[in-house]
Specification:
CATH class of the largest domain: Mainly Beta
Number of strands: 7
Distance between the termini: 57 Å
Low-confidence stretches: 136-142
Oligomer: single chain
Number of domains: 2
Strand order of the largest sheet: 1-2-3-6-5
CATH topology of the largest domain: OB fold (Dihydrolipoamide Acetyltransferase, E2P)
Structural class: alpha+beta
Strand content: 15-25%
Largest sheet: 5 strands, mixed, barrel
Shape: elongated
Number of helices: 2
CATH superfamily of the largest domain: Nucleic acid-binding proteins
Helix content: 25-40%
């Protein structure tokens, strides 16, 4: 077990730390190209700088992937929207972020029809607790 290791807290710090091996490889490749094929020094430096600029340009698109998450994957679905793939009466499947999840309405007297938009309000085990996104839900007959 590794002790004394501190997990980086910000997405930028994580991103930079993961890019260091790529930058080192770019430096080694630039040095080898300079020695083997006579690449001019300015071109070798441009190769390394270009590699670093590529990483800087990609950061805004990749930042969310490097965010530290405290909850489990299923807990991160709370608050997201989805669509009922089959009627939720009382349980059925919903599609959230392109994945199928077993779900049930958060209120026992609510039936959510197929194709109706839902919002994830909570989680019980691996079952999502959802509510209809609009007031067009139907009450189940008692």
């Amino acid at each position: 077990m590794v002790t004394g290791f501190i997990t980086p807290r910000t997405a930028l710090t994580r991103y930079v730390l993961y890019q260091i091996p790529g930058w080192l490889i770019a430096v080694v490749v630039a040095v080898l190209l300079r020695r083997w094929v006579g690449l001019p020094g300015w071109a070798a430096a441009a190769l390394v700088v270009g590699w670093a600029l590529k990483d800087a340009a990609l950061y805004p698109f990749l930042r969310a992937s490097y965010e530290p998450h405290s909850g489990s994957v299923i807990d991160r679905l709370v608050g997201l929207g989805g669509v009922a793939v089959e009627p939720l009466a009382p349980q059925g499947y919903v599609r959230v972020r392109g994945e199928l999840w077993l779900a049930e309405p958060i209120a026992a007297d609510v039936e959510i029809p197929r194709g109706h938009p839902v919002t994830v309000d909570g989680v019980r085990g691996t079952t999502l607790l959802v509510r209809p996104r609009s007031t067009a839900s139907r009450t189940r007959p008692s």
